[in-house]
Write a structure and sequence with these properties.
binds 5-O-phosphono-beta-D-ribofuranosylamine; seven-stranded mixed sheet; 20% strand; Rossmann fold; alpha/beta; 6 helices
Amino acid sequence: MRPARVAIFASGTGSNAMALIAKAQELSKEKIEIAFILSDKPAAPVLEKAKNAGVRTYLVEKKADRKAHEAEVLSLLHEYHVDWIFLAGYMRLLSADFIQRFRQWHEGAEQIVNIHPSLLPAYPGVDSIARAFSDSVKESGVTLHLVDEGMDTGRILVQEIVCRSQDSTLPAWTQQFHEVEHRLYSQFLENVALGRQPTVYFKETP
Ligand code: GRF
């Protein structure tokens, strides 16, 4: 059995991507492989960080034509026989066609996941932590979920609460979210590597 092959999509800082890379490097190469990091933004710091960590990177820049952009991304996934996509701050929605095509390579299995800093369905989309903070909520949290074509709407796999103390500042609270995100996402990657989360391997379809 070959290693489960993962592609990470990220558009920004890449702290989650780097936590996933660190976990993969700690695990056996026979069990898990990061095929590449893909970004749609040339200036995304994640590209440099991943390169420095010895991981292959691709930049597929935003195009006016979404279909053409996704076709380029799909051809990379096809080339590397990718089994799982981990979204880590990828600021684009994937189309239903893209998701369907990826599923066809895995006998219909849902193998695209995302990490989001709220207890979905609360606070989907951008600035979730800041919006929850300005609503003075007592707690919010982190959600790991499957990805469909909606905005943070796929089936929830794991959620963990992040409490907010009265004197907490936004930067301090944000830091708490990131710590939980990195831990939950790395754990999920480890589950994939160890087969606790089963993988349907890429298979060519006509
Ligand atoms: C994280 O908060 C993640 O939950 C959200 O986007 C942010 C990405 O941060 N989807 P980073 O680039 O991984 O640091």
